Amino acid sequence: MNLFNPHLHLREMVIVGAGGTGAQIARSVARMMYDMRRAQLDPPLLRLIDPDSVTEKNVGRQLFTAADVGQPKAVVLMRRFNLALGLDVSAVVEPFEAERHLTSRHHSSVLLIGAVDNERARQQLAAAEGVLWLDCGNFTNAGQVVLGNTGQRERVLQQLAANTPVYRYLPNAALLFPQLLEPEPPVVPSLLSCADLMAVGEQGLVVNDLIAAIASQYIWKLLYRQPIQSFASFIDGDSLAVRSPMICRDELLPYLTA
Questions:
Q1: Is residue 36 domain-resident?
Q2: pLDDT tens for the chain, residues 1 to 258
Q3: C-alpha dihedral sign at 216, 219, 221, 224
Q4: Which structural domain, as residue segments, surrounds residue 238?
Q5: Are the C-beta atoms of residues 188 and 196 closer than 8 Å to each other?
Q6: Domain membership flag for residue 258
Q7: How many domains is the chain built from?
């Protein structure tokens, strides 16, 4: 059995996107932080980054109420978790920029969690080379979660050639799926946000929750230093199936040589 062990000590978690998926992930992470404190463990800092404010179409479809309309999503969640659980979550109401918002010299101590729905935001996530990046994406009633810490193909190929049972590097979402960084085709439904897609029946109501649950399990494993055996998970809401390819040469190589 191969395992991922990047030899990291997480000091900060940054969630980019506080909408349908990001808000649910943030909720789970806040619970983990509270649990770690109760167990006298030292949880990483948590920062929420999203430039958007709550609109009426977000109410009920995302983790927001009618009283939140007009307020910044990241700030609403920050206040909620800090007041409810006594945490010290911070919020940034700006579009994410790698150089601006990742100021730590130790990028390897940062877990960057992406829950965005446009290529410009993902381009900035991909620009944060050296961080551990957990990327979440979805469409109609399915989606994927990808865990990686490098966009350098040769680095991963050298590791595969070494045939080691412990992997220090996993390909990030931009390396596995470069099309994620490209503009969407000019089809009207694809230009809508997740909330818009749900409103017109183009996206399932709970697909974000499914993606967030799987992403949160990856985060739990990282925080509690549990073995990481898969580099991605593919979720199908129609069949209620989750496929998580194992970390091994046979599973990784097709993505790197296509």
A1: yes
A2: 799 988 788 999 999 999 999 999 999 999 999 999 999 999 999 999 999 999 999 999 999 999 999 999 999 999 999 999 999 999 999 999 998 898 655 667 899 999 998 999 999 999 998 899 999 999 889 999 999 999 999 999 999 999 889 999 999 999 999 999 888 665 554 455 666 655 544 578 899 999 999 999 999 999 999 999 999 999 999 999 999 999 999 999 999 986
A3: negative
A4: 3-252
A5: no
A6: no
A7: 1
